[in-house]
Amino acid sequence: MEIRNVDPGDLDLICRHREFMFREAGRDESALAAMGPNFRRWLEPRLLDGSYFGFLAIDNDAVVAGIGLMEIDWPPHPSHPHQDKRGYVLNVFVEPGHRRRGIADLLMKAADAEFKKRELTYAILHSTTMARPLYENIGWTSTTEMAKSLA
After folding, report:
1. Alpha helices in 25-59 (DSSP H)
2. Looking at domain 2-138, what is its CATH homologous superfamily?
3. What pLDDT, on a 0 to 100 scale, did the predictor assign at position 80?
4. Is 149's pLDDT higher than 90?
């Protein structure tokens, strides 16, 4: 298994992974159709300027998984009182035929290492129900975050 950095040429793949991830989580098809082109427009410049970064897992020359990462602006907080930023994990996706082989764990370890390299001391993610046990097994905990749609 090879792990490599994402690059701007991975735009289509990352968009596909994101769509599949949300579809598997049971999101509405009309919402996915609306999200797709908007996410693509959002992602492209961020891949180019490096503000969206991450890794892909490659097995026998085929990409089988990916993870997106960002460094986001956030006010100092009791969980990171000396920093005004956080790491953010998004778009974690493993192709169905490659699950339960430790690939997501490898990607999460790569994310931890990248955040440490960038001197980030705190990271967040939003989990699907399916992925929650994986994250809990590697040290992630639930927080008190809530959400509300204003649309």
Report:
1. 29-49
2. Gcn5-related N-acetyltransferase (GNAT) (3.40.630.30)
3. 94
4. no
Which residues, 6 or more positions from 54, have their beta carbon under 8 angstroms from its beta carbon?
Answer: 5, 6, 14, 66, 67, 68, 69, 91, 111
On whether the CB atoms of residues 12 and 61 are closer than 8 A, the answer is: no
pTM of the full structure: 0.94
- Half-sphere exposure for 127 (CA within 13 Å, toward CB): 17
Q: How much of the chain exceeds pLDDT 90, in percent? A: 92
Cα–Cα distance measured from residue 69 to residue 108, given in angstroms and rounded to the nearest whole number: 10
How far is CA 97 from its chain centroid? 19
